[in-house]
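Thread: quick sanity check before group meeting

JM: Hey all, I'm pulling together slides for Thursday and realized we never actually wrote out the predicted structure for the chain we discussed last week. Dropping the sequence here so it's in one place. If anyone has concerns about the input, flag it before I start.
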Amino acid sequence: MEHDVVVIGGGNAALCAALMAREAGAGVLLLEAAPKEWRGGNSGHTRNLRCMHDAPQDVLVDAYPQEEYWQDLLKVTGGSTDERLARLTIRASATCRDWMRAHGVHFQPPLSGALHVARTNAFFMGGGKALLNAYYRSAQRLGVTIRYGAPVDRLEIGQQGRFVAAHVNGERITAKACVLAAGGFESNREWLRQAWGQNERGEWPTDNFLIRGTRYNQGVLLRHMLDEHGADRIGDPTQAHMVAIDARAPLYDGGICTRIDCVSLGVVLNRDAQRFHDEGEDFWPKRYAIWGRLVARQPGQMGYAIIDAKAVGHFMPAVFPGVVANTLRELAQKLGLDAAAFMRTLDDYNAACRAGNFDHTVLDDCHTEGISPAKTHWARPITDAPFFGYALKPGVTFTYLGLRTDETAAVRFANRPSENLFVAGEMMAGNVLGKGYTAGVGMSIGTAFGRIAGANAARASLKKGFGHAGA
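JM (edit): ok, ran it. Output follows.
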């Protein structure tokens, strides 16, 4: 049996594509590599969607216009982004929530004290797992055929990048069009090792990485498309959404609760008890995803977040309790750090702090002078017992190497778009995210391009022209 559209993947982007294709009248088969109980890839760990809006709008307060959203994205990526596709994502984020609600997604009322995200981000009631369950229910109700435990290991691609068939567990599945939404390669240790190599200390940094999301994102199809079919690529294989997470987190699927959010309220030291970056350079939702990469560059890929009693209550509590001590020297000993080096670093930091009006909701005037790296905001001496320490490791969410695409979400070969092969989600996020991250933008990309890819795959299967604004 030939299907109209086959969607490869089972997370947010794949589901958006499957739903849009089915709504357009196409028969849809969705192939999810994971078993049913682990379906959904990394989307189950998400919480929110970053949304443009020009005025207060249902669950969003104030305004978050296109230009501010673009400037936020430009800042975190350092310009490593395709502005056309970024602005397409931003515009699509303004209009997708009604469609999401129609498929059973519910949003929380605006959150008070939520570190600036009540204005910029719409939170899913029940988190990403509830969103996935809603989409799967809607897909089944609409007649999308879903197969679990169905990893696609290769594709047949004809001339000019035309999709012919997918191979699943030895079975050949044909379709008139295909959407690739099978995630990145963050769970593939061998590929991570190849990408990062050894550092100047002879270490293999990726051996110490933890994977915040699914173990099923092995990058099999991504590598197949790049190496076997010569699809146009985008992104640096070492760039990823990487967060500093609790070193006690599990190897896979630790999710949001393993994140340590107190970094901007204290200092972060490496294994040598030295600071290595400005902990207060910007609000946490804009800068939290740089810290995984920063820790990855340190000896042993370890960091240590240090705070005192003044910081308690100003950040989302960690799921694991921190190491507690009544003196800084005792804390250093409990963390296994050289006490003399630790005390020199903390004494220098405390002496460099300049009094100001501490306010963690604004870029305040509490800063350091005379030390490097500086702490430019929220710098207060760490002097009030008890003291807390959290050991950190790099936590990888998803990788940015992917397939180059355009406004139609078509996969490109030698800079020519395929007529019937499309891509969405983490497999193409590097078009928008060359590096860096800001909270909720991954779901914005997946939702926008999932909807575009699904709509255009349906058009291709039904012999209609492409649309640029399927979202």
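AS: nice. The mean pLDDT is 95. The radius of gyration is 23 Å.
JM: adding both to the slides.
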